[in-house]
Amino acid sequence: MSWFEETLYAEWRDQGYAQRFRITDLVYQEKSEHQDLVIFDTPMFGRVLALDGIIQTTEKDEFIYHEMMAHVPLFGHGAAKRVLIIGGGDGGVLREVLRHKGVDLARMVEIDRSVVDLCREYMPSLSAGAFDEPRCDLVIADGCQYVAETDDRFDVIIIDSTDPLGPGEVLFTEQFYADCRRCMTDGGVLVTQNGVPFTQPEEVVNSAKRLGAVFKDVGFYATVVPTYIGGTMMLGWASDNAGLKSVSVEELQRRIDASGLKTRYYSADMHKAAFSLPPYVQELMKA
Fold first, then answer.
1. What percent of the chain has pLDDT over 70?
2. Model pTM?
3. Could you confirm whether 179 is annotated as catalytic?
């Protein structure tokens, strides 16, 4: 019997804590130019993608993360035409963004072509054909460099990054956030993957400070993805328009109804509730 043990909290193993997945089939493994990539099958979560020893997504629970990353900013904005996705090579966020018929362009900037190609081949349900959509513009490049140099502007920017380790580290800096702000239209919004505060409190502390130095309205919203161990995870929110965060449930529902979207996790009520954070997270935001 073969097992995959996640390395994100490897230092806790001596204290008796680890997350392991039984591998029923090792589908693919390689060390790309940027990271170690492995795709494997499990009896519990279906097919799984891991990068540098850390679980990125699974077939069973990916819908939770991808729906909340995409629909909270898009329905919160209400009129987004141009969307920029940094990272997200598995295609799940892209899939959900393109379900919004009002979006004219979804540009995805991914540093590692191997992630895109292998997920399209071995985990096609994640992108569900999104890469073949005419509104998709896939750019294989360094996302940090892209936002520093592009002249294009976007209504919504989604940072679907790995944790701040390896190639994902530069996507958590104040300079990167400032470059994102430069690429945004007036009233636009940025959302970021921000880790699990119970086990990664420094991610909330650092992001709150760095985003707060660039944007007028900064906060976090919550979701729970079973394979992202440690409890509730945070998604960062930053805009210069404070009104985007306070759209009523009734207005959100009107926008959802008009879109015709059917979702499995996201809803108007979940959207609104996601911004209600426990006191310990609020304290981290002030640290």
1. 96
2. 0.95
3. no
